[in-house]
């Protein structure tokens, strides 16, 4: 058995090597992780790419009636998904979105289903999955896009507990129930791989963030939870990827932010990225949190990033900044 001193020495070498990689190759900033920082879609993530085909798959997208959710639905249709199910709270918005999708893809075989549902209501979630089962629909790909974003306030300690917990009940609790229902579908064939895509936010990295509570804190919590679930389930069982979609000028954003304030990304970037993330090409990022801006080919080809992913289990995961992951073995009472 190696001595504690030898273990500490190896740990120091590992930490120093990680520090060198991070320092020498300038990969602390998300903007620098790949040489190319995309703001619009590009060929490697095109839903028309044969390797990204979603043929034969049913895809469910929460918050699918507008904004990025609607664009993700379009991208999966372009990728040949057999069925695209959009879910949201407002029936009128969903129905209008379904009409647009059916018109745009009238020459394709993709079926579009609009279903009212509230991920903040457990009974509504159960009703949704009961309906899908009654229609003999097995969902292969789940895109968790819906989120609770308010209230906007600078002082957490002036908030009401109800306001705080509503964000966690929806963004964490509701998405958790959706994942449980997804994984335990009665119609899931034995051994059938699933694909889970979580639309997160770069807000979980902002310190301080303009809207810290409850949005970014609850989003950080669910992004961490999704990563932990990936630890428990191999990629062959459920391929899980969380990603920051970009800075997007949607209906929701327009209520709070002046369009001239920020540099906005094109919706096609995160929409097509979701399709790529649900393909075998993205399997090596199982459990990771990534940015849609990063060039997927450059990311995979970078040997230094590959080293970090091999050596640091916490790399591209929600964790404590400045520290690598820690193993339970470090706290075990082992015989000398």
Task: Explain how this protein is built.
- GO terms for molecular function: oxidoreductase activity.
- Pfam families: adh_short (PF00106).
- Keywords: NADP, Oxidoreductase.
- This is Short-chain dehydrogenase/reductase.
- The protein is built from 10 helices and 7 strands.
- The protein has helices spanning 4-24, 67-78, 91-104, 122-134, 161-183, 212-232, 251-254, 268-277, 296-301, 303-311; strands spanning 58-62, 83-88, 111-116, 141-144, 194-199, 238-244, 289-291.
- Strands 3-2-1-4-5-6-7 form a 7-stranded parallel β-sheet, with helices on both faces.
- Helix 2 crosses helix 8.
- It is globular.
- The model is unreliable at 1-8 and 10-27 (pLDDT under 50).
Number of helices: 10
For the biggest sheet, the summary is: 7 strands, parallel
Structural class, by secondary structure, is: alpha/beta
Helix share of residues? Answer: 25-40%
User: Radius of gyration over alpha carbons?
Assistant: 21 Å
Strand content: 5-15%
Protein name: Short-chain dehydrogenase/reductase
Keywords: NADP, Oxidoreductase
Pfam family, one: adh_short
GO molecular function, one term: oxidoreductase activity
